[in-house]
Amino acid sequence: MSRRRKGEAISGWVCLDKPPELGSTQAVGRVRRAFNAQKAGHAGTLDPLASGVLPIALGEATKTVPFLMDADKAYRFTLVWGVETASFDREGAVTAISDVRPDPTAAAAALATFVGEIDQIPPDFSAVKVDGERAYDLAREGIAMDLKPRRVTIHAARVTGAPDADHLEIEIECGKGTYVRALARDLAAALGAKAHVGALRRTRVGAFALERAITLETLEAMCYANSALEALLPVETALDDIPALAVTTEDAFRLTQGRSIVLLPRQVDTLRARLSASRVVSARHGERVVALCEMRAGRLNPTRVFNL
């Protein structure tokens, strides 16, 4: 006999505005407890020192987390000139200092050279695995590493302000795997300077933007007032970039049973024009997402079924 899960069977997404000094796992725990949800997870770790958008999945929404992990992201951060740290943020030990204070115009010109596909070496203080260990754990032990460059994409980067000679404000839009702290390191090096990230705020993850984010305090107050469901976004919010197909009641039932369905020729043609290399399709019945499927040989084969 299987054990019954504790908590409520609540499904959906919370677009959380994570405060600084709180870890992503801790944030997930607080949201899960606020809803008394059976299951929760997050899409894309946000450093404890950073604030901003942290999408948190509850219940059946956790099945869509992998699709959001690959989503584009946007950040707003402040570069502090003159001091380099081991982690390239304000938490790390100081490793170098410099009197160089680059002109904002020169910094903007140098920043533009990082737009596009670039090779980026992750910081030692990162979640990259080295022989099965997290790089940040090895870095804390003082173990030297030779991390390999990774191909990442920066779609856009702009200087948005320079409050004084010691600070530069920057906004970027980037693909998965991009490290803001590595960009700060490399930009400073290109300018013959030293720097670290003094403040970092994530403003977007895929369809989850800061404009629709909610703070923990507001969310917990709504839960206390029994109005928290108003802050819950649909499960399919994470599937905005995946082609959707409306299915009949009979086909919806077949998919929920784990059985494939046959597509009409016109449906195949329409989906082929919109499919990516993953060939993933979101099957929907009315307003409800039924299953995530793979299209093969004119059929939809369910790979993740939703119990909504």
List keywords for this structure.
alpha+beta, Pseudouridine synthase, Archaeosine Trna-guanine Transglycosylase, Chain: A, domain 4, nine-stranded mixed β-sheet, 18 strands
What is the topology?
Layout: E1 12-18, H1 24-35, E2 40-42, E3 51-58, H2 65-69, E4 73-81, E5 83-85, E6 94-97, H3 104-112, E7 116-120, E8 129-130, E9 133-134, H4 135-140, E10 150-164, E11 167-174, H5 180-190, E12 195-205, E13 208-209, H6 216-224, E14 244-246, H7 249-256, E15 261-262, H8 265-272, E16 280-285, E17 288-296, E18 299-305
Parallel strand pairs: 3-12, 14-16
Antiparallel strand pairs: 1-3, 2-3, 4-11, 4-12, 5-6, 7-10, 8-9, 10-11, 12-13, 15-18, 16-17, 17-18
Dominant shape: globular
**Share of helical residues:** 10-25%
Q: What is the highest CATH level, the class of the largest domain?
A: Alpha Beta
CATH topology of the largest domain: Pseudouridine synthase
Task: Characterize the structure shown.
- With 308 residues, this protein is of the alpha+beta class.
- It has three domains: 91 residues, Pseudouridine synthase, CATH 3.30.2350.10; 131 residues, 2-Layer Sandwich (Pseudouridine synthase), CATH 3.30.2350; 64 residues, PUA domain (Archaeosine Trna-guanine Transglycosylase, Chain: A, domain 4).
- Helix content is 22%, strand content 34%.
- The strands form four sheets. Strands 1, 2, 3, 4, 7, 10, 11, 12 and 13 form a nine-stranded mixed β-sheet that branches. A five-stranded mixed β-sheet has the order 14-16-17-18-15, with helices on one face.
- Strand 2 and strand 3 form a beta hairpin.
- Helix 1 packs parallel to helix 6.
- The chain starts with 11 loop residues before the first strand and ends with a strand.
- The model has no long low-confidence stretch (mean pLDDT 90).
